[in-house]
């Protein structure tokens, strides 16, 4: 599934790239190539872990926990790019970790704990990837950043599947329609995010982007009929609130 998401997600970005006639010049630089490969590897791993978490755990748990990538990205930026994390953000990190602990309590589903582990892993990997994303967008533009990372990810994941001799069977029960929709929405989401951080301060856009689990959890409750224990509901709410507050904090 991750291979299909990455592969099909190339087309919306490629169409925009050709339509707006962006330059290919960034691809010729060694720094950009290194960033693209590193980001593609991280996103590939992150997507695999995230989707496995959705398969084994609960969407209502995996999605909010993985959204903690914002915290990881800030920590990576502080360590490697010498950005400052204030006292308020350190306190919010503790709040988010407490929320994850509450969400990790065993609820009605045995899949819950597995989902938390996958969510935390995706959070760490995606956070490192996002910390590399802004330099790529600055160097190449909103479309080429998505195109280059998606193509590299699709090739790597395709090679991995071939090496593992995995079956390339079509999706069953009409699942292909949902995979195509997910790939297109995921790619368009990245493009819109790129345009946003080009035209507005990152500190303004990240709080909005980090709030995506609110929609995901709501849809999981309505469409999939997931139900959490009360402690887990509190934990998910604490995680989402802490992430938004963390992103908005100066």
Q: How would you describe this structure to a colleague?
A:
The protein has 250 residues and is mainly alpha-helical. The chain has one domain (2-248). It has helices spanning 2-8, 10-19, 30-56, 59-66, 69-80, 87-103, 111-140, 142-163, 175-199, 202-209, 212-224, 230-248. It is built from twelve helices and no strands. The model has no long low-confidence stretch (mean pLDDT 78). It is globular and about 50 Å long. Helices cover 79% and strands 0% of the residues. Helix 2 (10-19) runs antiparallel to helix 8, helix 4 (59-66) packs parallel to helix 12 and helix 6 (87-103) packs antiparallel against helix 12.
Which radius of gyration do the C-alpha atoms yield?
18 Å
Strand content: under 5%
Domain module count: 1
Number of strands: 0
Distance between the termini: 38 Å
Residues in helices, as a percent range: over 70%
- The H-and-E topology, N to C, reads as HHHHHHHHHHHH
Instruction: Tell me, rounded to a whole number, the average pLDDT.
Output: 78
**Which spans of ≥5 residues are poorly predicted at pLDDT below 50?**
none
**CA-based shape:** globular
Q: How many individual helices?
A: 12
Strand count, sense and barrel status of the largest sheet are: none
Sheet/helix structural class: mainly alpha
């Amino acid at each position: 599934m991750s291979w299909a998401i990455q592969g099909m997600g190339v087309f919306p970005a490629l169409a925009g790239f050709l339509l707006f006639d962006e330059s290919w010049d960034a691809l010729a630089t060694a720094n950009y190539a290194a960033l693209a490969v590193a980001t593609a590897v991280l996103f590939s791993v992150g997507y695999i872990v995230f989707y496995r978490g959705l398969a084994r755990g609960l969407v209502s748990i995996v999605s909010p926990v993985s959204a903690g990538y914002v915290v990881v990205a800030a920590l990576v930026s502080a360590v490697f790019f010498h950005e400052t994390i204030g006292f308020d953000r350190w306190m919010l990190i503790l709040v988010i970790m407490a929320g994850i602990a509450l969400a990790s309590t065993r609820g009605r589903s045995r899949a819950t704990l597995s989902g938390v582990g996958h969510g935390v892993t995706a959070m760490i990997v995606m956070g490192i990837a996002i910390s590399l994303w802004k330099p790529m967008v600055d160097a190449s533009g909103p479309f080429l950043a998505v195109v280059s990372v998606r193509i590299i990810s699709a090739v790597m994941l395709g090679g991995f599947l071939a090496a593992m001799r995995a079956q390339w069977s079509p999706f069953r029960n009409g699942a292909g329609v949902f995979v195509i929709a997910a790939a297109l929405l995921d790619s368009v989401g990245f493009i819109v995010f790129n345009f946003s951080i080009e035209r507005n301060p990152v500190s303004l856009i990240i709080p909005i982007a980090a709030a995506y689990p609110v929609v995901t959890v709501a849809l999981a409750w309505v469409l999939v009929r997931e139900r959490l224990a009360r402690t887990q509901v509190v934990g998910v709410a604490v995680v989402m609130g802490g992430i938004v507050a963390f992103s908005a904090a100066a």
